[in-house]
Design goal:
- The chain is an alpha/beta fold.
- It has one domain: Rossmann fold, CATH 3.40.50.
- About 40% of the residues lie in helices and about 10% in strands.
- The chain has a 4-stranded parallel beta sheet with strand order 2-1-3-4, sandwiched between helices.
- The structure holds zinc ion (ZN).
């Protein structure tokens, strides 16, 4: 996991506050990702996305700080509910909301005024939105959630095309871990799996964290059979090069969002 924040000294935090530096807080997870990916997959990915965004921001003259990460999130029901896979450490929606709220409140107490919460675990989106809304209402800080999963398909569709739909532990996540921590990926242990649900263009809109109008947090129990190993998609479609492209394209989108917000609040 990232130790960027922990490497800083208190005096450097004071300097960052004095420079009115925006802070990125990454929401990861400690969660099973099938037989081929590590439990820290979501945290590793989101921190790398934040670093990619920070590089793009730097080219625009905006210095952002990679703040503390939260490596836990609520249970991913769609992929955890059918089977209890070992390793996942999930926290409740309420704890997620309160933990994030208190971590952000500490950053605000130290003087940071713009916090960007980058979602790396889809299930953290709803609690993060509530925490961000309350802190923005109650303090003079601006707390913004940034969920790239809403736009990811549009972002990469011109560059990357997977053969089959990809979800939790699928080719997208596998490609990103191959790009940064290939030694932690056991592609030989992976098998493709697609739940038995009708293919429909409603599927994307049915995921609440994608901003859809339909809130479906579970799939019907008969969507999964005995071959289900905790992932959705075809990890074998992943390559490290695709992972690098994904980090670049998503990192740029995150940077665009942050740059827009920074312009709004600071005029720079
Ligand atoms: Zn994941």
């Amino acid at each position: 996991m990232s130790d960027d924040y922990y490497r800083l000294r208190s005096t450097q935090i004071a300097e960052a506050v004095a420079a009115d530096t925006p802070v990125i807080i990454c929401l990861g997870a400690t969660e099973q990702h099938g037989s081929h990916l590590p439990l820290g997959t979501d945290t590793y990915q989101v921190e790398e996305l934040a670093r990619s965004a920070i590089k793009f921001l730097d080219t625009r003259g905006i210095a952002a700080l990679l703040g503390p990460s939260i490596p836990f999130g609520p249970r991913q029901f769609q992929c955890e509910a059918p089977v209890d896979f070992p390793g996942t450490i999930a926290i409740s929606n309420k704890t997620m909301q309160q933990l994030l709220r208190e971590v952000c409140a500490e950053l605000i107490r130290h003087g940071f005024r713009r916090l960007y919460i980058v979602i790396g675990n889809a299930e953290s989106d709803a609690p993060a939105q509530i925490a961000a809304k309350e802190l923005s209402e109650e303090t003079d800080a601006v707390v913004t959630t940034v969920n790239w999963m809403v736009v990811i398909t549009e972002l990469y569709q011109n560059q990357i095309s997977f053969q089959t739909p990809q979800g939790h532990g699928g080719a997208g996540e596998t490609a990103r871990i191959l790009a940064i921590l290939p030694e932690l990926v056991d592609l030989k242990a992976s098998r493709a799996y697609h739940p038995k649900i009708p293919a429909s263009n409603l599927d994307r809109d049915a995921l609440p964290y994608l901003g859809g109008g339909i809130g479906r947090y579970k799939l019907p129990p008969d969507a999964f059979d005995d071959a289900f190993e905790g992932i959705v998609g075809a990890p074998a479609e992943a390559t490290a090069e695709i992972g690098r492209q994904l980090f670049a394209v998503i990192g740029k989108w995150i940077a665009d969002v942050i740059a827009f917000e920074e312009g709004l609040w600071t005029g720079r």
